[in-house]
């Protein structure tokens, strides 16, 4: 039913790269081809090679370099009047924005990418961009708004037999079920995702599915040893493919498993490791979630209650700024668990995505012009804040 997984973001002369190619190798090949295309004045090829460069930098956690690369890819595509390549560059930029915690900007860029993908006749980038919008809404905890979109994209991916996209959709829906307490359904979907990814040789997708299975095994079954085994298997792939972000989330999940098992000192060490990794790559969502786990672990190890209370109150504000409603509820539960009176109200309903001047200003220096009226941003290179 499903063919071998492929990486549509590796384009032009880079189509021979595998979905499982080491990101270091992707970066080297992409950079070489980009320079050759620039020397030849081949703007469309430069845009498509630059996309691979941007994605390699992003997945390696090199936020500043990724920010420069996707914008350069967009400019080259615009000069070449290559609408589909423009869409792919915006998809990369939107995905990076989500990774950096700039969720309104991510929503805007991904929406523009989907629009250009449709205009340029590239159904794949349109699908990837809609998927990115769905994931952005899911991360914010707005399940009612994006649940149907996840299901639609899953049905489309199954119909086309596209393994990688099917795995992504299954994992996203499974995560929503897990967060709402439907553990059996979540487990079955993560398990199916792992099986499809394995048959399609999608090692990245399988690593994320194993992480999801480990979470369920830990929280539902209380089986820490099996959960840690699944995470260890996933970590091998993360290291071999240089998946910096996935590896950091793997370490954070390992901290979660150890915390649930009452192994607080070990959990503290893993949360500290994950926190350092997220800070190094400028990923605020992972950083905040690692801080939360670390605060709980330190409290269990005897940290004064007033220090823990101050830490959790600050985290609630951070998560509000990012717009993570589910994570905000996690802070509230932590306060209750540790006997701390909440000092902040429950998170409000998520606002409508910000598509105005503030979202544009978040783009930083040399913000890429997009095909709708859009104020020029301040000259502030937020992509370098790592």
UniProtKB/TrEMBL annotation:
InterPro entries: TPR-like_helical_dom_sf, TPR_rpt. Gene3D superfamilies: Tetratricopeptide repeat domain. Pfam families: TPR_12 (PF13424). SUPFAM superfamilies: TPR-like (SSF48452). Residues 333-386 are annotated as: Disordered. PANTHER family: HTH-TYPE TRANSCRIPTIONAL REGULATOR RV0890C-RELATED, REGULATOR-RELATED. This is Tetratricopeptide repeat protein. It comes from Streptomyces ortus.
């Amino acid at each position: 039913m499903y063919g071998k997984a492929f990486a549509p973001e590796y384009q032009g002369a880079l189509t021979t790269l595998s979905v499982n190619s080491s990101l270091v190798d992707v970066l080297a090949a992409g950079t070489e081809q980009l320079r050759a295309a620039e020397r030849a004045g081949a703007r469309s090829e430069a845009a498509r090679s630059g996309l691979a460069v941007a994605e390699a930098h992003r997945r390696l956690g090199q936020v500043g370099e990724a920010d420069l690369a996707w914008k350069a890819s967009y400019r080259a595509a615009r000069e070449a009047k290559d609408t589909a390549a423009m869409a792919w560059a915006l998809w990369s930029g939107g995905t990076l924005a989500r990774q950096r915690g700039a969720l309104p900007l991510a929503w805007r860029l991904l929406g523009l990418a989907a629009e250009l993908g449709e205009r340029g006749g590239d159904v794949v980038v349109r699908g990837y961009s809609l998927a990115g919008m769905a994931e952005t809404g899911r991360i914010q905890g707005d399940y009612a708004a994006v649940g149907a979109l996840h299901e639609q994209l899953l049905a489309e991916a199954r119909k086309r037999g596209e393994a990688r996209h099917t795995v992504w959709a299954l994992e996203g829906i499974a995560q929503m079920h897990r967060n709402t307490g439907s553990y059996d359904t979540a487990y079955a979907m993560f398990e199916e995702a792992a099986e499809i990814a394995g048959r399609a040789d999608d090692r990245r997708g399988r690593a994320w599915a194993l992480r999801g299975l480990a979470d369920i095994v830990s929280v539902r079954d209380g089986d820490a040893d099996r959960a840690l085994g699944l995470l260890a298997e996933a970590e091998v792939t993360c290291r071999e493919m240089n998946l910096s972000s996935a590896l950091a989330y793997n370490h954070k999940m390992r901290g979660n498993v150890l915390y649930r098992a009452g192994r607080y000192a070990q959990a503290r060490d893993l949360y500290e490791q994950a926190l350092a990794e997220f800070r190094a790559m400028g990923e605020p969502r992972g950083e905040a979630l690692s801080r939360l786990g670390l605060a709980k672990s330190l409290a269990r190890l005897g940290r004064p209650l007033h220090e823990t209370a101050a830490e959790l109150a600050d985290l609630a504000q951070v998560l509000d700024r990012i717009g993570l409603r589910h994570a905000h509820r996690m802070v509230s539960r932590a306060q209750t668990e540790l006997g701390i009176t909440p000092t902040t109200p429950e998170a409000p309903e998520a606002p409508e995505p910000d598509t105005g001047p503030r979202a544009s200003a978040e783009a930083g220096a040399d913000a890429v012009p997009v095909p709708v009226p859009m104020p020029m941003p301040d000259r502030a290179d937020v992509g370098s804040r790592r």
